Each structure stands twice: as C-alpha cells, then as structure tokens.
Amino acid sequence: MRIDIATLFPDMCEAVLCESIIGRAREAGILEIHCHNIRDYTLDKHRRVDDTPYGGGMGMVMQADPIFRCFEAVCVQLSQRPHVIYLSPQGRVLTQQLAVAYSRQDCLFLLCGHYEGVDERVLEEIVDEEVSIGDYVLTGGELPALVFVDTVGRLCEGVLADESCFTEESHFNGLLEYPQYSRPAVWHEKEVPEVLLSGHHANIVRWRREQSLLRTRNKRPDLLEKAPLEEKERVFLQNTDREE
Ligand code: ADE
Fold first, then answer.
1. Is 191 in the same domain as 148?
2. Of 153, 178, 203, at which residue does a domain stop?
3. Both 20 and 116 in a single domain?
4. Are 131 and 85 in contact (CB under 8 A)?
5. How far is the CA of 142 from the centre of ligand 1 (A)?
6. 118 CA to centre of ligand 1 in angstroms
7. What are phi and psi of 111, to 5 degrees?
8. From the CA of 239, how far away is ligand 1's center (Å)?
C-alpha cells in the first residue's frame, strides 16, 4: 500500500513514521509512505500557504492552490488518482471496521489541514471523504493522519507477524480483548488464572471469550449491544452477577 501525506509539517510526520512497526514495514517495502511539504508547492515568493478569510473572522485559511498542486504532483507520480481523505473533526469517525476497508486500498492521499481551515474549493475539487479520529478538535490534521496511518498500516498484509495479532484484539469482532498475562506465574501475590496454565486449549478459548464478553459489558456496554453474539451469549446483555 502507498500513502501520501500532504502537510505543512512533514518532519513531524516522518519522525513518527520512521519508528517501530510502521518504520520497519516501510524499510521492508511493505508500506510506501511519503510526506509532502505543501509549502514546496506554493508559487508565492514568500512561500506563503495561508491567507485571511474572506468575510472576516479569526485566524488564517490554507489556500487552495498549493494543496492542489501538491495533489497533482502525487497523481503524476502515481499515474493514477489516489483516494483522497481530508482529516477533519467534521468527518466520519474512524473505527476498526473502516480501518480494515481502507487497508484494502492501493493508494491513499491524506490531507492535513491547519489554522482555521482549508479553502473549501480545493476540498470540493479533490477530497473523496473526510475522516475524524474522534469528537474533539486538534490543532491540525497531522496527529490524526499519524493515527490513521498506524491504524490502517498495521492491518496491511505482512506488517504484523501473524494475522491473529489483529483477529484476537479489541474491536476486531466488536468486543474488547480478554486480559493477557506473562511470566512470572505469581507477581505481587497475584496469580495468573489457572485455566491459562492448564494447557487445555478448548477451555482457554472458552475462558477468553467469556472474559471478552464480561469486559465489554463492564467497560463498553454500548459495544456489546451492537456485537454479533451467539444466542447463548445474549445473557451477557443483562447485568448478571458474573465478574471479570
Ligand atoms: N483535525 C482537527 N481535529 C481533528 C479530528 N478530531 N480528527 C481529524 N482531524 C482533525
């Protein structure tokens, strides 16, 4: 998968994207990510990319032309038009299900806004959809773009060692993940649940599923209501006495 990020702060994006799992996937050629400085595409002699809003008001607005020229340059490099996402608090909120769908795209172009916004005309002309990372407002689209790339990138084939890395984790099946334990078997007088030491695979699977259901009911009952449950699991929708 290829992702192009158009931003006024390419170094901020690079600093994160060269590290850890995403950084290794880039080095291995599994993910191709390019950060473009929108300022490199302005024709203004002072390299300006923003101006005051028509109609007055606070702050500055990012101008249409440098963003459009940046997008055109990427289209030429790709020899195709990427799917364009504008990171914005007005967008559809990113979920694990959406991330899975985005991870199947060949190329994505992420536009990071700043200041008071972006000239609406370039949004109308190039943006396919707006995506938000949650109902709160950040100072710019860079952190949301990084969250997006991390969430989507790790779902691409070959980025994580094993597919069970994400089929088992929170949100994949609409539930939160069961608790995990590692050595030592006793720590601060707390024991690892016995079933996990039993080696009995079927019991472990059953216990983990039940823990997932209990956790989801306790921490995110809103998710449990929407999760695909088996008939016998529907008892978890009621507030029974069972504890995690
Ligand atoms: N830009 C500012 N706030 C944002 C948010 N919550 N999601 C995506 N982009 C944003």
1. no
2. 153
3. yes
4. yes
5. 9
6. 13
7. -105, 125
8. 36
By residue range, what is the domain housing residue 65?
Answer: 2-153
Closest-CA residue, ligand 1 atom 10, reads 88
3-class secondary structure, 165: helix
CA 146 to chain centre: 7
3-state secondary structure of 197: helix
Rounded mean pLDDT, 197-218: 97
Per-residue confidence (pLDDT) for residue 166, from 0 to 100 = 79
Tell which of 124, 153, 182 closes a domain.
153
Dig out the tokens for 198 from the structure: 């039993």
- What total of structural domains would you count in the chain? 2
For residue 185, being part of any structural domain is answered with yes
Q: Are residues 47 and 120 in the same domain?
A: yes
> pLDDT at residue 29 above 90?
yes
Question: Tokens at residue 176, please?
Answer: 């939160």
Q: In this structure, what CATH number is given to the domain that contains residue 117? A: 3.40.1280.10
**pLDDT single digits (tens) 120-148:** 999 999 999 999 999 999 999 999 999 99
- The length of the chain in residues reads 244
Q: Are 236 and 147 members of one domain?
A: no
Q: Ligand 1 pocket: which residues have CB below 6 Å?
A: 87-89, 132-134, 136-138, 141, 144
Q: Residue 110 Cα, ligand 1 centroid: separation in angstroms?
A: 12
